[in-house]
Each structure stands twice: as C-alpha cells, then as structure tokens.
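re: that chain from earlier
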Amino acid sequence: MVKSTRQTKSRSRPALTRKRILETGLSLLERSPRADISMRSLAEELGSAPMSLYRHVRNREDLLEGINLLALESIQLKIPPEGDWLDRAHIWMHSLRRELHARPAVAPLLRLRGSLAPTLFQVLDELIRVMLDAGFEGRGAALACREVAWFTMSFVANEMSNQSFAENSPSLTGSDSASYSGSFDQLSSDDLAQTPELAALLPSFAEIEIDEIFSAAADHLLQGLAQSLDSAASRQRLK
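^ sequence. v structure.
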C-alpha cells in the first residue's frame, strides 16, 4: 500500500528536468524579483528534495546562469541597418530598456550576472555595427559600446529594483519611499528643512518622470560620444 501511494505521487508529479528547474526559478523571480533564489527555496517550490536538483544543475552559479539565459533568450531589437547613427543608437537604448522591462526577473539577474549573457551578444553586436558606422574604430568602438550598454542595463536594473522594493515595502513613507521609488512628490517641507536649494527646486524635481530622465541621460551620453568622435577627427586632420 505504501509503495503504491508513493508510485501514485511520483506519477502525478512532472519529471524533474533542467528545463523545469530553470522555468520554475524564472517564475519565482518574475513573481518576486527581489527573492533570494536558493536550491532549498527552489526545491520547495518544485516539491522535491534540494539534493535532487544537483542532478540537473551543478550549483547555484549554474542555476543563475541558466535562468539568466532563459529570461533573455527572446530579446530581439529592430534597429535600422542604415541612417543617422545617433538615431539608431537612441533606438537601441530605448528598445533594450523596453525589452528588459517586459521581463520582471531581469533586474536581479543583471545585478548578479551582468551584461555577458550569450543571449545578449547579438544585441551588443547590433550596437557595435552602429558605432562602427559612426566612425569609431577598434578600442574606441569597444569603449563607446560598453558605455552605452553599461548605462542602459544599469539604469534599468536600478529602476526595476527600486520600483519592486517600493511596491513590496508598504511601510515606507515620505522621504524613505521617495528615495527608493525615485519620486520627489512625497517629500514635505520638513524633509527638506536642512536643504534649502533642493527645497527651492522641489516642484521641478517632482514633475520629472523617470522616462524623461532616461531620455535626457541617453541623449547627453550620445552627444558626448559624438563630440569625442568629432574631436578625434579634428586632431587627425591637423596631423
């Protein structure tokens, strides 16, 4: 009877595979982006013993790497193959931000794994083509790409993390909530009693949305790269 019961439970539970483990881990992060994924918590979600997971994933590092690849594998950016390089770079940055926002589990994975997921290589390759078309060469092209990619992914990771923290921390109020959500409209005059310059500009700070900040920062970054490119060309002409 005991053996029959165990066999029934075994048949009713889906087979434990690497794919199922990774999909469950991704689902956990999508529900709770700030969750601390561990073998124990994942095994509990799967209804399995922690040690059984090691038949399919080597360790936590391998687990996170697999979840990272799964989360990012569908990212595809549609960047025009021709046209002004600044416009194409803007499209790349805004498109990547939009794609990452569509994947709630991405923020903690970016913090843990960075931008070197193989599934992002194609995305980076598109940016490289833009920079080469702009006139950057060699190390200069690599540096320009890393600046743009690092800024975009770091910005998204931080805004998604802060948004998640604020949403899951109802106890935060006033300046504490504002510091995590990036919003100034919850601040009061008491919060800014020791910072008169900030208090004077508070209405302007409060009306600026995160989308405007990203657009402005992206524009400033790309304009700076354009100026460095022009300066390099001017120096070359003087030789």
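The chain has two domains: 14-72, 85-168+209-238.
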